[in-house]
Design a protein that fits this description.
It contains twelve helices and eight strands. By secondary structure, the chain is α/β, with parallel strands linked by helices. It has a single domain, classed as TIM Barrel (Alpha-Beta Barrel). The protein is globular. The termini are far apart.
Length: 254
């Protein structure tokens, strides 16, 4: 049986269109509910939301229960080992701006000289049930690296970063990218042009963040094969607004 993590890595390689969302609330029930639905993956936002090792571990256990691949967006590379040991399908690293940085991230993701510290004792290693060679082989099939391109320097070095062996995907952070270029409009013409440039990078899967209900067809045509659309915060707010409209349909908003 192919694991959810291996399916995710294979889908990236095959440029199969996937849609997921960010998770901002560090609670396993959120993962259980959304992971059992039609989304292809979830992204724990440990960069901007209050996740720690314990909450990541609990959320990834819930993801295992509903067979849903989960990406962990780490605040910095020191979190990579913990995220992978907990069972993450992939790590998403913000602000990747050079080939040297991308090479270092690939080493941190995989076992080998100067790379990921080895143990088969946590969830990712079956709590010690896997033999050494089995764990090494399975891990190579199951973990993915996603580098965020969201800075002027990252765009300038796009070709070199995209060509990094072992890098599975690039992800456009349109908000930070907009700010990095001194712009104030998430949907500005320049932001759109730069986003298309990154999505068209050859030899690597590419994706981006979209607002909920945004038309993704133009981005797919530009090269995107995975989309992170909104978060559970958006879904909760939208659900609350819908209930407000239900009331207002009777009261006229009074």
């Amino acid at each position: 049986m192919v694991s959810a993590n291996a399916r995710f890595k294979q889908a990236l390689a095959e440029r199969k269109l996937m849609v997921g969302c960010f998770i901002k609330t560090p609670h396993p029930i959120i993962i259980e509910v959304l992971g059992a639905g039609p989304l292809d993956f979830l992204v724990l936002d440990a960069e901007h939301a209050p996740f720690d090792r314990t909450s990541i571990d609990a959320c990834l256990l819930a993801a295992r229960a509903v067979d849903c691949p989960v990406v962990v967006r780490v605040p910095d590379p020191s979190w990579i080992l913990s995220a992978l040991d907990c069972g993450a399908a992939a790590v998403m690293v913000p602000h990747v701006v050079s080939r040297a940085q991308a090479d270092a991230l690939v080493r941190a993701l995989h076992y080998g000289p100067g790379g990921r510290g080895f143990t088969a004792s946590p969830r990712a290693g079956g709590y010690g049930a896997r033999k050494l060679d089995e764990h090494l082989e399975q891990t190579a099939r199951e973990v993915s690296l996603i580098a965020q391109i969201e800075d002027v320097e990252g765009v300038d070095n796009l070709a070199e970063i995209a060509a990094t062996p072992g890098l599975d995907a690039l992800f456009v952070g349109r908000a930070d990218l907009t700010v990095s270029y001194g712009l104030r409009d998430f949907f500005s013409e320049k932001t759109t042009e730069i986003t298309r440039r990154v999505l068209g990078a050859p030899g690597v899967a590419t994706g981006l963040f979209c607002a909920p209900n945004e038309d993704i067809a133009p981005w797919v045509a530009a090269g995107a094969s995975f989309v992170v659309a909104g978060s559970e915060h958006n879904f909760l707010a939208a659900g609350g607004a819908a209930l407000g409209r239900m009331r207002d349909s009777v009261t006229g908003g009074k």
